[in-house]
């Protein structure tokens, strides 16, 4: 979704009034929205964000002491501040500027919309709170360098099923639904190496390809 200059101005103005709580559904990650999570921890309102899985790479860096981040599917763009004011956009309603909502009943309805998406979204587990085992690190290091599940299993002297089970556990741990998303997450958090392909890697196997497991 592409926001206009007017939209960005509204977002910044509304965020500037936040004192206690920010609720945000973010199908895309515009700079004005990112500022909702960039406030100093001591002064920032409590913030909860549901970010689209297509922007997974940015989600781990958003989570902090005052920001909770979850990964969701397609969502409207919604911003609620202190449960008193709100803005919402839908992809098929871009012909006119979106007014700020202040009516209590309408704000409450939008809070319910947010809570619905929040309950269905998957938590982002910060890496420091869920450290990898040595086996998991070895597996993702091999996969990231282009090795298949079978080649990785052979190199580590474990079964292919063990490789696949460990990868599945990591995906569940981080609320990830595909190996492509897992590759993006690992790259974003610095958990995969930047070295060249390992012996047994497929030709041209980049990160997104190497985690496909074929």
Keywords for this structure?
DNA-binding CsgD family transcriptional regulator; Endonuclease, Chain A; 39% helix; 214 residues; DNA-binding; alpha/beta; Sig_transdc_resp-reg_C-effctor; single chain; 6 strands; six-stranded mixed beta sheet; 9 helices; 2 domains; Arc Repressor Mutant, subunit A; 14% strand; DNA binding
Q: State the total count of DSSP E strands.
A: 6
Q: What is the N-to-C order of secondary-structure elements (H for helix, E for strand)?
A: HEHEHEEEHEHHHHH
Helix content: 25-40%
What is the top-level CATH class of the largest domain?
Alpha Beta
The CATH superfamily title of the largest domain = Endonuclease Chain A
Structural class determined from secondary elements: alpha/beta
- Shape annotation: elongated
How many individual domains? Answer: 2
Write down the overall mean pLDDT.
76
Low-pLDDT residue intervals, each spanning 5 or more residues? 194-210
User: Which band does the percent of strand residues land in?
Assistant: 5-15%
State the CATH topology of the largest domain.
Endonuclease, Chain A
Name the CATH architecture of the largest domain. 2-Layer Sandwich
- The number of helices is 9
């Amino acid at each position: 979704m592409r926001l206009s200059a007017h939209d960005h101005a509204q977002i910044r103005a509304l965020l500037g009034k936040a004192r206690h709580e920010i609720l945000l559904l973010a199908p895309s990650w515009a700079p004005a929205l990112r500022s909702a999570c960039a406030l100093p921890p001591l002064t920032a309102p409590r913030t909860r964000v549901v970010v689209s899985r297509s922007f997974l790479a940015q989600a781990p860096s958003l989570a902090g002491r005052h920001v909770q981040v979850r990964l969701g599917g397609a969502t409207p763009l919604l911003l609620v501040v202190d449960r008193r004011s709100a803005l919402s956009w839908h992809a098929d309603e871009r012909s006119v500027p979106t007014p700020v909502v202040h009516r209590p009943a309408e704000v409450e309805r939008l809070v319910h919309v947010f809570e619905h998406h929040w309950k269905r979204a998957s938590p982002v587990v910060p890496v420091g709170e869920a450290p990898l085992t040595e086996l998991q690190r070895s597996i993702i290091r091999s996969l990231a360098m282009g090795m298949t599940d079978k080649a990785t299993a052979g190199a580590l002297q474990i079964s292919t099923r063990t490789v696949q089970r460990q990868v599945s556990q990591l995906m569940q741990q981080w609320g990830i639904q595909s190996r492509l998303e897992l590759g993006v997450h690992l790259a974003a958090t610095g958990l995969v190496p930047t070295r060249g392909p390992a012996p047994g890697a497929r030709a041209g196997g980049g990160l997104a390809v190497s985690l496909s497991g074929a």
